[in-house]
Predict the 3D structure of the following.
Amino acid sequence: MYPALNKSYKGLFPFNIGTTSFIYPDDYVPNVKMLGPYLENIELLLFESHHTDALPSKDVIGELAILANDFKLTYNVHLPTDISISSPNPRQQKTAIETIIRVVERVTPLSPTTL
């Protein structure tokens, strides 16, 4: 694993402290396990969508939901950057919309604060 942070400021301010999901060179779950005790919010970075394993699996989403409960944290989701709903190409727009729907359906169990 990775060295723990020295001190937590979680709950000490009238605002939430958050970061992105890839601080450590690892996957979503190990990052949340390391960061959860120190933060109120983690932004799940879902930059790519075209590969079959680009989105977190349903099992990973399930584990992230458990960790959110354990650490009393919330998630927000960064939508993929490899799509564009503003593309001039109608096929690319359609693909982008379908991708966003797929992402929203996948992360819904996490009750994200924003997408």
